[in-house]
Amino acid sequence: MATSHGGPVAAVLHDLQHIFGERLQAVVVYGRPDANPQPCLALVRSITAEDLDHCAGHVGTWHRAGCATPLLLTRDEFAGSLDAFPIEYGEIIESHRLVYGIDPFIGLTIKTEDLRRECETLVKSHLVHLRENYVECRGRQSDVAALVAEAAPAFALILRRLARLDGAPANTNADLSTYAAHRPGLDARVVGDVLALAGEYSAGVDAIRIYPGYLAAVEQLRRFIDSWRAATRE
């Protein structure tokens, strides 16, 4: 069964159908509906070097249409990598909109321990990133502001996955702020400011001012994920 879809992905779908023919099983878009470029995933029965060459010839057209370069995988590759990329692939599964084919994610689930482990990796690497890159900014306010703004989407992703891990709502910034204040014990005002930077309502948010609170929030997340792991082992 196929679903029609206009917008940026229409050109991508047309070209992928031409390149892969009957090997094209499904195409989905995911993430925010207003994302530009719009990310998408194509699941195919097989991928050859020749297929990649053909796709490479269309990339410029896809980008100009507002669609990101498609992620190309077989369904077995996707399903077999859920343990390696539970956050990234979990986001795709939860936010996807079917463009072509039959929903490829029916029956696929993310294991709790796989998700917890990647959450731990992301939190701790995010903390290192914030510290190291702040030093690299050498006190330049514009660079610090850019650091905070560029890191904010990753912080939002971490909170969404932690909330999902705890079975809490995570559909809106308000959901994430409530979760962050009540479970990890973060400063709700700081969380709200960082989430604003991660979205489309960042006007008036002083990225430089919130850096110390942002850093403290991620340090608290590190302590939280360690205690969460310890609690699950008791």
Q: Trace the largest sheet across and list its strands.
A: 3-2-1-4
Provide a count of the helices. Answer: 10
Q: In this structure, how is the largest beta sheet organized?
A: 4 strands, mixed
Q: How much of the residues is beta strand, in percent? A: 5-15%
Number of domains: 2
What characteristic shape results from the CA principal axes?
Answer: globular
Q: Roughly what percent helix?
A: 55-70%
The string of secondary-structure elements, in order, is: HEEHHEHHEHHHHH
Number of strand segments: 4
Alpha carbon gyration radius: 20 Å
**What value does the average pLDDT take?**
89
Oligomer: single chain
- Amino-to-carboxy terminus distance: 47 Å
Which spans of ≥5 residues are poorly predicted at pLDDT below 50? none
Structural class: alpha+beta
Describe what this molecule looks like in 3D:
The structure is a single chain. The chain has helices at 9-20, 49-56, 59-65, 75-80, 86-95, 112-136, 141-165, 173-182, 188-198, 207-233; strands at 24-29, 40-44, 71-73, 97-101. Helix content is 60%, strand content 8%. The termini are far apart. Strands 3-2-1-4 form a 4-stranded mixed sheet. It has 2 domains: 9-101, no CATH class; 112-227.
